[in-house]
Amino acid sequence: MLYPRETKSREIKDLSGIWKFKLDKENKGYEEKWYLEPLKETIPMPVPASYNDITQDPEIRDHIGDVWYERNFWVSSAWVNKRIVLRVGSATHKAKVFVNGKEVIEHKGGFLPFEVEISKYINFDVENRVTILVNNVLDWTCLPPGFIKNYNDPFHPSGYRTQEYLFDFLNYAGIHRPVILYTTPKTYISDITVITEIQDKKGIINYEVKVEGQECDKKEVRVTVVDKEGKKVAENIGKSGILEISDAQFWEPDNPYLYALKVETIEDGVVEDLYTLPVGIRTVKVEGNKLLLNNKPIYLKGFGKHEDADIRGKGYDPVIAVKDFNLLKWIGANSFRTSHYPYAEEILNLADEQGILIIDEAPAVGMNFFNKNEKVFCKDRVNEETLKHHIQVIRELITRDKNHPCVIMWSVANEAATYEEEAYEYFKKVVDEVKKLDSTRPVTIVESSFPDETKVGNLVDVICVNRYYSWYTDCGKLDLIEFQLEKELKRWYELFKKPIIVSEYGADTIAGFHSDPPVMFSEEYQCEMLERFHRVFDRLDFVVGEHIWNFADFATKQAVHRVMGNRKGVFTRQRQPKAAAFLLKKRWCEKK
Ligand code: GCB
């Protein structure tokens, strides 16, 4: 699925803005066919945004089930002969879409886009109505999984239920990414795949173009590579081929050079469709205990992040997005992980442009009770149906993100119960699917298990491990960090002989809390902890990256160990630096 871009043959109409919104208190709107008529008794709701924090109403914030969004739009008759597509950047977690009262598509999975051609449902030159039913319930067949707890005890009124989940971020819901209409010609470029290679100074782009629609086989395909100065540097005719650029510029954090790949369909000498894909020529490889970018070792400096901000929740906002990239640059980071789900494509586009490397993660998180008596991989929990959905999500993720130079690794899950025997078969199938779809990028499964207990260490190319020494274990015992961490990391390497990224480490820190000597939750404690982790990393040459948990404070469900959310941010939720930010800036701006 190509990211919508305007060209001379394609137009975009952004439907973001203020929509009508209605809570479906009893979850009966679908049965009662609310979509047939304009919604009644609505309130205004911004799109994109999570709906949870927009109003003062706890019933909306904590609702379990369906909500409805609606807006009107016009389509002029200038679009009559075009293919009109409605695209939802994401709706969390399930959605059904109706155009003028007709159901046109449904989708499961809260972090990936879906689209449908709606040309035949549109009325031209009059008002049209789009209605989107969004459902936030998580069960064991979803990613991330969750479950509904029904209370049957004297302490809760009858029928009381809660949405439970095992992951550590708030289950925000709503339409989180832009909703747009876009057009293409009736016969159109439906997909492009590029794989780049480097031979000395030569850059090679292997490409494949798919054309769909009427008489698509008759169209000629012309592919041109244009450099930043607008100069044509390579050209080819054909739906697939190899483009060579002598003396190419290679994409890397210090020089995120993007060529423009212009793809055109042509009939009788007339260009009908044009799509322009930004292409960065770069390679990623694992060799011995190193991660190589363009055949040179690269050390990842950065964070686990979240899509999270005040009021907006998980809604994409260009203000937050650009601010975050500015902070990444300011602090000297070169990478982040899209913990714990695929982020908006707009974020990946920025990363391509700014030279930020990304570990792209599937929304498989919360597959662990951290209690060995509670199995996860079993008939009633993570089972065949979950696996089927996981594979579907992997397909959608790779289809969406395969062409981004910034994406250097796939993470298929975070902190699953990989110590369970059944985890091996499950993840083998998931990793096989990734390899089948993309053999050019390393794959990881982010671990909380220990090296001697994991069953999946042999499935991955890079070991990613999350560890919280002196926080969740041996609270306050900073002096144990180096002893414990070094021992563990050496064991990982001894067993698997693969490069290691410490993909999470950190301490909850309330900005403004101070203590010397450091105690937990103070800014000094966060600094001291990081420094001790770093001393170990600097001693071990198989450690190829450090991603601190987390970039910024973020919202979680309410719990006694969460002080208005998770406070492990190096920045506050409002993106102001804690003391650790200055420590990291010094380290990362110096460290190669
Ligand atoms: C983890 C999880 C992350 C949590 C973090 C924490 O291991 O991967 O989602 O937020 O720990 O702070 O507990």
Automatic annotation (TrEMBL):
<dbReference type="GO" id="GO:0019391">
    <property type="term" value="P:glucuronoside catabolic process"/>
</dbReference>
<dbReference type="Pfam" id="PF00703">
    <property type="entry name" value="Glyco_hydro_2"/>
</dbReference>
<dbReference type="GO" id="GO:0004566">
    <property type="term" value="F:beta-glucuronidase activity"/>
</dbReference>
<dbReference type="InterPro" id="IPR017853">
    <property type="entry name" value="GH"/>
</dbReference>
<feature type="domain" description="Glycoside hydrolase family 2 immunoglobulin-like beta-sandwich">
    <location>
        <begin position="187"/>
        <end position="282"/>
    </location>
</feature>
<dbReference type="GO" id="GO:0005975">
    <property type="term" value="P:carbohydrate metabolic process"/>
</dbReference>
<keyword id="KW-0326">Glycosidase</keyword>
<dbReference type="Pfam" id="PF02836">
    <property type="entry name" value="Glyco_hydro_2_C"/>
</dbReference>
<keyword id="KW-0378">Hydrolase</keyword>
<dbReference type="GO" id="GO:0030246">
    <property type="term" value="F:carbohydrate binding"/>
</dbReference>
<feature type="domain" description="Glycoside hydrolase family 2 catalytic">
    <location>
        <begin position="284"/>
        <end position="589"/>
    </location>
</feature>
<comment type="similarity">
    <text>Belongs to the glycosyl hydrolase 2 family.</text>
</comment>
<protein>
    <recommendedName>
        <fullName>Beta-glucuronidase</fullName>
        <ecNumber>3.2.1.31</ecNumber>
    </recommendedName>
</protein>
<dbReference type="GO" id="GO:0005615">
    <property type="term" value="C:extracellular space"/>
</dbReference>
<dbReference type="InterPro" id="IPR006104">
    <property type="entry name" value="Glyco_hydro_2_N"/>
</dbReference>
<dbReference type="InterPro" id="IPR006103">
    <property type="entry name" value="Glyco_hydro_2_cat"/>
</dbReference>
<dbReference type="InterPro" id="IPR036156">
    <property type="entry name" value="Beta-gal/glucu_dom_sf"/>
</dbReference>
<dbReference type="InterPro" id="IPR013783">
    <property type="entry name" value="Ig-like_fold"/>
</dbReference>
<feature type="domain" description="Glycosyl hydrolases family 2 sugar binding">
    <location>
        <begin position="12"/>
        <end position="185"/>
    </location>
</feature>
<dbReference type="InterPro" id="IPR023230">
    <property type="entry name" value="Glyco_hydro_2_CS"/>
</dbReference>
<dbReference type="Pfam" id="PF02837">
    <property type="entry name" value="Glyco_hydro_2_N"/>
</dbReference>
<dbReference type="InterPro" id="IPR006101">
    <property type="entry name" value="Glyco_hydro_2"/>
</dbReference>
<dbReference type="InterPro" id="IPR023232">
    <property type="entry name" value="Glyco_hydro_2_AS"/>
</dbReference>
<dbReference type="InterPro" id="IPR008979">
    <property type="entry name" value="Galactose-bd-like_sf"/>
</dbReference>
<dbReference type="InterPro" id="IPR006102">
    <property type="entry name" value="Ig-like_GH2"/>
</dbReference>
